[in-house]
Design goal:
Layout lengths: L2 E5 L4 H13 L3 E6 L18 E5 L5 H9 L3 E4 L6 H6 L2 H21 L2 E7 L25 H20 L3 E6 L2 E2 L8 H10 L5 E3 L5 E3 L1 E2 H14 L5 E4 L4 E3 H11 L8 E3 L14 H7 L8 H14 L1 H17 L4
């Protein structure tokens, strides 16, 4: 695979993947990205210019995606609207990008016989009880809760249908919550880090007992590359790094790292339909393809991420006020 098309490659997880591929292989990458509020050209800075191309465009632009698919050996499809809170206030873009966009990618892959890897989320499985020892596996029934996760669930079903009905050469991965550099300040970890850097207080939904299974974006990238290279066509692989923490634990770690009292946070209005707990069993990926996470433990990864936000204020600052104003309008600031 020498020529790879990465949809959504200027977003948080997509751009981490582009850095991963260009740093570890001799492949060249075309990024197709609409450069919405959640993407940034800066996330692609420092890459070898002769091996990366940015096409600013919409993944739901069928002729554009068809043309690009014909010029590449593989498509890795990250492009998606990803923020649950936004999907609750305005679901339309989630249907358009996550469902219609995936349809366009599938039709393009079908027409050109291009290998496809579809990026998805563990949220398609709904949530687990806090005291349930179970974790999600590839056999867990779909049960999405939000417009975001329902649209991602639908996109997974489209991929499986195109594999079975049209022989599209596709794999799917469902990953848990990512953290790391270049994540938009609307998301939980960057929001709380930047609140504290600004001298403010973290804002925790509900009672803060909801659990997320954190993985560093770099480990997500290495898993996706492994599946792209060695995954079996038509298969789904769950990606996770055994990083379960509740939201209170995470904000306390951020506060303590930045020299503040661990209880210096506010509990705010809960998210509607807020999923309680996500937890991934990634045994299939580890046993079948030999993948293991390489990033250090969550505490070390979080500390490095906090330092990254401290060092990159000029990147996150322009979006911060508008993001907080939107949360304030919902009683979550
Ligand atoms: C923004 C914010 C969030 N939260 C809570 C809500 C969740 O329990 C947790 C993480 O929230 P966040 O919105 O960052 O992420 P999730 O809703 O878990 O979803 C994320 O991880 C999955 C896998 C994807 O697939 C999504 O694309 C991705 O956004 O913190 C707060 O308590 N306060 C806040 O200010």
């Amino acid at each position: 695979m020498q020529r790879i098309l990465v949809t959504g490659g200027a977003g948080f997880i997509g751009s981490n993947f582009v850095h991963h591929v260009l740093g570890r292989t001799d492949a060249s990458v075309t990024v197709l990205d609409k450069l919405t509020y959640a993407a940034s050209r800066e996330s692609l800075d420092g890459l070898p210019e002769d091996r990366v191309d940015l096409v600013v465009g919409d993944v739901a632009d069928q002729p554009l995606v068809e043309r690009l698919a014909g010029e590449h050996d593989a498509i890795v499809h990250f492009a998606a609207e990803s923020h649950n809170d936004n999907s609750l206030s305005e679901p339309g873009p989630f249907i358009q990008t996550n469902l219609v966009g995936t349809f366009c990618v599938l039709e393009a892959a079908r027409r050109h016989g291009t290998r496809l890897h579809h990026i998805s989320t563990d949220e398609v499985y709904g949530d687990l009880e806090l005291d349930d020892p179970a974790r999600f596996t590839e056999a867990t029934p779909y049960n999405p809760s939000s417009p975001y996760s329902a649209a991602k669930a639908g996109s997974d079903h489209l991929v499986r249908a195109w594999v079975r009905s049209f022989g599209v050469q596709a794999t799917i991965s469902n990953c848990s919550n990512n953290y790391g550099p270049w994540q938009h300040v609307e998301k939980f970890i960057p929001r709380q880090i930047t609140n504290v850097l600004d001298g403010g207080r973290p804002k925790v939904y509900g009672a803060g007992t909801n659990v997320r299974d954190w993985i560093h974006a770099e480990d997500h990238s290495s898993a996706v590359w492994t599946i792209l290279e060695r995954g079996r066509i038509g298969e789904t692989y769950l990606i996770g790094a055994d990083g379960e923490r509740n939201n209170l634990e995470v904000v306390r770690m951020i506060l303590e790292h930045l020299g503040r009292d661990a209880d210096d946070f506010d509990l705010v209005t809960d998210r509607a339909g807020h999923d309680l707990r996500y937890a991934i069993d990634s045994s299939k990926l580890r046993a079948e393809l030999g993948w293991t996470p390489s990033f250090p433990d969550f505490a070390t990864g979080l500390a490095r991420t906090i330092e990254w936000y401290r060092d990159h204020e000029s990147w996150w600052r322009p979006g911060k006020d508008a993001t907080e104003a939107a949360y304030a309008a919902k009683g979550q600031a």
